[in-house]
Amino acid sequence: MKAKRTDFCFRLSMALLVLMLACCKPAPEPSGPPNEPETPEQPVEPSEPVEPTEPSVPGEPTDPSEPSEPSEPTDPSEPDVPDESVIYNVQFGAISIGRVSSTSVQCKCLLLSDDGASISELGVCYAQTENPVVTDNKVVASPVEGGYFICELADLKANTEYYIRAYAIVGSDVFYSSQSSCRTLYGDLLIRTLEVTDIGETSAESGGEITDDGGYEIVEWGVCYNQNSKPTVTSDTKVVASPGGAGTFTCELTNLSPGKRHVVRAYAITNTAKVIYGQDESFSARPAGSTPKDYIEKGQNIGKSIPVKGKWDGTNETYLHWAPVNCGYEEVGDIATPRDHRTGMFYQWGYGSGLQGGAACAGYWDEIYHTQIKWPSSLSYSSTDKWNENRGPCPEGWRLPTRNEFEVLSSRNNGTSSWMVLRIYAGNYGYRGAEFFGANEDMTAGKGVFFPAVGDMFYGESMLWNYGNDAGYYWSSSLSTGHLAYGLYFFEMDVKGMGVAVSACPYGKSVRCVAE
């Protein structure tokens, strides 16, 4: 009885164990006999083929269970593109300053490390303000061994502070070194003395031009002058120009000695107390009585006279003032207008009223003078009337030149260069004519006495003569014999065809006035 109970308990325990194991396992799968492959109770249908997935888009997660496609091989000929995600550390050493001048600076830089970066450009940048960048001024360097590179900064301003930094460009990034600075040296202060103008008996005008300040601050400038040479600001007369600054300036020279030689030169004083001088310019003040006079006719101020040195009394060499234009000058319209009086009028000897002239040189002879009125019939061919105050055409204080005074101007001809014929004379509206100079005068074009070549008018006729040869005829105040009087004449086509000669008094000629 006891044995049956024991057997029953054993069997019950085993059943409970089997039941527990069944509850802990997944759904039971049928199994075959030991050491034999498992055979499913029902055949399994083959799965459908999986379609290949599209390449993953950057930034989106991919399924790790799916096999990745092999990457394409890299073309070794293509340049490396810097990885934007990589942060490089480009380092420079201190900038060394080498040769320095007023316009250039040489600097040496050291590239300590590029951290493997691909540098597309290397050099230095500079400016007059701190922390310069590559958009200011830059100098691209050439590669050198040892990481060193040298740059030359050119076209700089004198005595000016410049800030300098080395730079390297990697992709879109720019790496800079620490800042260095350097001041350029002073340059050459360049100043020139201007030509002396408006020379009078006791005054004149000059000045200077500072063409380069050399980086200096100019605290004073002007001119200094004396009667010797190399005038200075400490020993001679000086005139301070105003206002200060670089450029051109003018000064008036006063208290000159009439007829004496003087020397002037420009100067500039810097903030370092340095005095720079221009070149010497010498000139002679006009002798007493030689200062140009105003020529006023019919209330119109025509301009300044031309003082010319001449011995018109035969003994004393002094100045005679020649009027700048012919008597009867009157500007009417422009040069293309007929009947203007730009070259004056024609006068019979001894008569103060003339006939219109002046447009002959403009090419209107046929239009004007073929219809011109004739000379007054009351004047006979043998007239010997003299010029006088009532009949003279010259303004008050002026008179006609004498025969001798004309001879002073024409005595230095004979084909020499002491006179010149000018086909175009800009100072006189382009008229043709001759320019004369007195004894010991400056024979520079424009500084003599210019006479337009306007020909003359014959007695009893209504047309102009001798204009074809560009001739000029001018009355003097000296009567010859009978109905003849002296006058100046010249022909452009014959250099020797000039001087003083007699002509019939009734003929119409130009008049040029003079004053003492």
Task: Give a description of the structure.
There is one protein chain. This protein is mostly beta strands. About 5% of the residues lie in helices and about 35% in strands. The chain has three helices and 33 strands. It has helices at about 1-25, 365-370, 405-410, and strands spanning about 90, 95-100, 105-115, 120-125, 135-140, 150-155, 160-170, 175, 180-185, 190-195, 205-210, 220-225, 235-240, 250-255, 260-270, 275, 280-285, 295, 300-305, 305-310, 320, 345-350, 355, 420, 435, 450, 455, 465, 470-480, 485-490, 495-505, 510, 515. Strands 4, 5, 7, 8 and 9 form a five-stranded antiparallel beta sheet that branches. Strands 12, 13, 15, 16 and 17 form a five-stranded antiparallel beta sheet that branches. A hairpin with a 4-residue loop joins β29 (about 470-480) and β30 (about 485-490). The longest helix is centred in the first third of the chain and has 23 residues, at about 1-25. The protein starts with a helix and ends with a strand. Residues about 30-35, about 35-40, about 50-60, about 335-340, about 355-375 and about 415-430 have low confidence and may be disordered.
Write a compact overview of the structure shown.
With 516 residues, the protein is mainly β.
Structural class: mainly beta
Q: How many β-strands, per DSSP?
A: 33
Helicity, in percent?
Answer: under 10%
Largest sheet: 5 strands, antiparallel
Short key terms for the protein model shown above:
516 residues, five-stranded antiparallel β-sheet, elongated
